[in-house]
Amino acid sequence: MSDHPRFVVNRSMVALVPEQPFLDWIQAVDPQPVPNLTLEQVREDQSVFLLPDELADSHDNAVRWVEKRWQAFFEFMLGEWFDDSAWPETLSLAMFRTWFSVRFHSMVFDMAPEVPVMHEDWDEDDDASDVLH
Fold this sequence. Notes:
alpha+beta, 3-stranded antiparallel beta sheet, two-stranded antiparallel ribbon, 5 helices
């Protein structure tokens, strides 16, 4: 296989990039805070979400799509760090916009097309996975 991108996935993607208020929250609620935790460290392994292909035309469309689902995304990001007992009492779209930036990418390349893409549903009780292609 060539090292040059050739196979495009029929999705666009967004990364939710944590901002300073998210780091401040982590440090405020962590019972065993990591000394000198930086925003760069929190951003090292960003959550990335594949979006429907029809959103691939613009950053603005992708942001609107994410913001329509802001609460689910916000809760997911908080849950990646702590259970809901440590979450802020009130969440809002304005708070989501302050805590996270949405980074959009219209092209997603598959650099290992010989390996099937797997889809794992975390909501399922069993460990079943489905092959996407």
